Amino acid sequence: MFQSALDPYDWLDPTERFLEVGLASEQEAAVEANAPLEAEIELLQAKFDALVTPFFERELERRLAEVPVALRESLRTAARTPRKMRTAAQKKLAGEHKDLLQIPNADGEWHQIAEAFPELKDTAGPVNTKISELKAKLIPSPKIRAVYDMGGEPSRTYLLQRGDAQAIGERVGPGVPRMLAARTAPFEAVPPRQGTSGNRLAFARWLTDPRHPLTSRVMVNRIWLSHFGRGIVSTPSNFGLTGATPSHPELLDWLAIEFVRQGWSIKAMHRLIMTSSVYRQTSSVAAEVAAADPENILLSRMPLRRMDAEVLHDSILRATGRLDPTRFGRPVKVTKKENGEIVPEATDAGWRRAVYVLRKRRTPVTLLEVFDPPKPAPNCTERRESNVAPQALQMMNGEAAHEHARFLAGRLIDKHPNDRVSQVAEVYERILSRRPTASESELAVQDLESMDRHWLAHLDQTKHAGPRRDTARWMALGSFAHALLNSAEFLYID
Asked: Which of 229, 244, 261, 454 could form a disulfide with 234 if both were Cys (CB 3.0 to 4.6 A apart)?
């Protein structure tokens, strides 16, 4: 039986239900960086309080004048006491006079304060904005949500016969499936500290026992799935009788043992798989091999796979030089453009990786949404992979992709002015990770000259102000870079 982390253990914040997981060096660096910001925030908060409090007090006294004299002092004290610090009597009194005490004070939301006291918009408003800006610069300490055992005797658990809550059967205790426990260490719950049962710790130790028959097998199968698009067991969430049998059972066993031997290192497993000969195969295959292994069950070739949504998002930013590699911190907000496209907001250093983008049901990032992101409803055991028209339309018409391509074009023109061959060579290297062949370079230069003429004619018709030839060359190279971002060679992993 568990409760949220509310009790004041020294390793747990009793007010936030979070557990600190950062290294000591990370916490010290955060404290050092945050100290001057917090000092400035404290001064501004005091200034904000001094501006808002008189308005709160004035409104409170106006409302108290309408209640009996005998209640005024009690209500005044309750109104000035923060909700979390009110006594039971004050909470009861506040509940009985709820409408009277609903006056925003300096601890309330700014939009409520501004609505109640419009006069404060020009005075307290700028102070509130500055406080919000400083708070956004604070370095958050790495935390995870935490739960722990409730103290005392755990609740008794009984089998319910045929699932009927009224038909209570024999009592059962914590344990693990007998069929999986034969070769592992016995499940023994030893309380690590007073006030906890030790059941969760015992289960974690049993689950990560090197002799456990499933944990390492399931994990290496998922790592294999991420690289090949298909697991050695093609039903990654079902290793039971109703699941698929392994295509290479000996390989699965060996990888599971090797995973444990290397200290359960996921990075080591990635390295092992990606340096193997099977991973380094070409996706091209002879007709007879394809006929003998049409589904590639025997791994006769490397499957041609489209990049996942998050990988595609990050690869576009990396190729065009706009990726902000900053790790950790607050989630990135999204914004909706005039054309309806939803995109992440930029930082001072560019755009952050997709893993840091805020996900909301109502505002999914358009690029990620059309390229099959995982659907956690209720959970995602295996993401689907589709090839549909909206994906091509998004890549061709999405405003964000055009902007990134034009940014790259501007950088290359600055770096290689009037040198189309060098510009083409670097576009290929950045986007396709290779140099163009002689014929590709020649054809690309011809295409760019043709696009130059097209954009010049277009700019003449629109009476574009400024150096039209420079703008035309920039637009042409941007269009070429955008075309490479749309190519199968970029979108697919070979």
From this structure: 244
